[in-house]
Amino acid sequence: MTNIKSKSQSRSDDAEGPDGGWGWVLVVAMFVSSSLVFGLMRSLGIFFVEFVQYFEESAQAISWISSTGLAAQQFFSPLAAALCNAYNPRVVVMTGGFLAGLGLTLASQSTCLVHLYLTMGVISGFGWGMVFTPMVATVMANFTRRRALALGLGFSSIGLSSFAFNPLFQLLVETYAWRGALLILGGLSLNIVPCGALIRPQRRSKAPAKVDSETKSCASILRRIASYLELSLLTERPYLTYTLGVTLFNVGYFVPYFHLVAHSRQVGFSEYQAAFVMSAAGASDILGRIVSGWFSDLGHFRVVHLLTLWTGLAGVFIMLLPVSSMSGSYTALMVISLLYGFCSGALTSVVFAVLPMIVGVERTMGALGLLQLIESGAGLLGTPLSGFLKDVTGNYIASFMVAGSFLLLGMLTMTTLPRFFSCTDPAPPQRRSLDAKEKVLDLELEQMNSSPSDKKHTVESNDPANSKLC
């Protein structure tokens, strides 16, 4: 018996051990897919100026393109999580990669802003949502002690692609115009499909035998959907506090990626100088993600404390971005951009690593989907608000000031988490697998639909007095 137990324990350790096994292959897949989702999304600021000039619209109207894509990515994440829990993450990610490429391809043929809202915004955003949540949750499920490092390595491609994509997109726009550039990006996004194919199908238990037809009622279907979406998390204070904090700093987090290039060009720098500012921020972003993931896994500080630190610093440097360029110093703008890139990258390595500590590993997929849904409103608000402030004031100073203040507000919200000021992490919630939840649901549904005589027979058979008589 001891040998059997030791073997089973060693197998479980291998499945979620420090090296992750196949999890490192999934990190590579996440590395590529993240670059083609958020790396591409961050570099769309190159198209911002082109769209303003071509469609002759305000900065606020053009900002809705990127905001719609970001909001759609976050809004459809719960659907992606539910589909993964119900079926297969591999199929979900592959489908998302196809939709992301399809949306950008159709966007290249747009003749008005509404077309861009629907293609780059809704269709590509839907595809991005079906890629991001399953990939992140799958990687986290394959790591324990090195989870933050794995996420940092997977997310480091966002900084690398930001460094490479900005000058590349500028070259594509100058060579093929914005239509040809979007067509090329659509084909590039299809590389997400083979990344999804690397996800191994999950083993699921067989369906329960012969469930009464009445169990297929509307109520039972809704209860099953609620279990897939992990809606019970909305009643737990730690998760709600964490979600509120992430939502607040999500309002301002993406503003520099969409408006820093336009701000740099407005203050007098050339097109390639403006693009290189974002490339420099992307390069330091890579370093920040890896260093943050490695340092947090050392265990010297709680991950939630590191999260608040990086969030506060990122907010301060966002507010300093327009101040550094007021004197016309390109060097000052570059230094602040490097510091901002490092802190924003360090932030992303730990923001999702905190989630399993709050809800448990088994509920990470649904929790991540709900988080993305709730913060989709913030993503939809942030960039248009920045564009509106630019239209009102004539520059981007107020835009960056407000964006940075939202990150600081999110940092303060995180400090209200239960036991935040404790030096040790609280015990994680008790794990409960999806199969166990399905069995409980099936048993409850069978009891609800059983006849009164069956219930009476069950009670009598379980009565101790009756057992004694037998």
TrEMBL record:
Its main location: membrane. Residues 461-470 have a biased composition (Polar residues). GO terms for molecular function: monocarboxylic acid transmembrane transporter activity; symporter activity. Keywords: Cell membrane, Golgi apparatus, Membrane, Symport, Transmembrane, Transmembrane helix, Transport. Residues 446-470 are annotated as: Disordered. It is a multi-pass membrane protein. PROSITE patterns: MFS. GO terms for cellular component: Golgi membrane; plasma membrane. PANTHER family: MONOCARBOXYLATE TRANSPORTER (PTHR11360), MONOCARBOXYLATE TRANSPORTER 13 (PTHR11360:SF19). This is Monocarboxylate transporter 13. It comes from Oreochromis niloticus. The gene is SLC16A13.
